[in-house]
Amino acid sequence: MTEDRIFAWLLVIVYVTYSIIKINVQKIKKFNGNSIEIDISKYDIVILNSFILIEVVIIFFFIFFPKYFIWAKADFSIYVRICGFVLCVFALCLFIWTHKHLGIYFFNSLKIKKNHKLIVSGPYKFVRHPMYSTYYIFNTGIFLISSNYFIGILWLSCLTVLVLYRFRKEEEMLRMKFGIEYINYHRITPAFIPYFKLNGKTVKSIEKPEVLN
Question: How many domains does the chain have?
């Protein structure tokens, strides 16, 4: 088996592992009869599912029809590709850690329960959106493993489009729900990269904004 085929199947292994974890998370997460207080998920779940479908199709063709991707081959060294695999494993661990602390408050779409709690433990001590950070690490790892510019650019671009669409709405939604508590958390905790922005300032009052449509 050639080096490219070995790493192609490693790509399958990490993606299948991610899918298994994701399925188990959905099974474990229970609604527990709590009603939804805020729901602005009109389009984001459609965008998310579209990107997932694109990723699955691309992986399928990359594994079984690799000749169509030769034009975008990056020729990364075996050590760089191994680093990509390590990044993916690290991202999967972060994914599990994030879900462990988020628990029943996780939604694929932009929703908040009536009894929703602001999570500031685990990875949320370091960044406000560890799930997005995890996906960037994971997709970067996929890029390095595949050693293919088309896959790397496509996956990271799709993720960036999703984050740009959701990030501001999610921030406003959390600010509306938690008010001062979230605004203070926002001021001392960076969005994606630990220790990137820390000023330690707090406020005593804040007007709750309207959630963006």
Answer: 1
> 67 forms bridges with which residues in the sheet?
none
pTM for the structure as a whole = 0.84
Q: Is 37 helix (H, G, I), strand (E, B) or coil?
A: strand
Domain CATH code at residue 162: 1.20.120.1630
Instruction: Tell me whether residue 6 is in a domain.
Output: no
Residue from 178, 132, 181 nearest 158 by CA: 132
Name beta bridge partners: 113: 36
Contacts of 56 (CB under 8 A, 6+ apart): none
Query: What would the pLDDT profile of 52-73 be if each residue is shown by its tens digit?
Result: 888 889 988 988 898 999 999 9
Instruction: Give the angle subtended at the CA of 44 by the CAs of 144 and 24, to the nearest 5°.
Output: 65
* Residues 124, 15: Cα–Cα separation, whole Å: 24
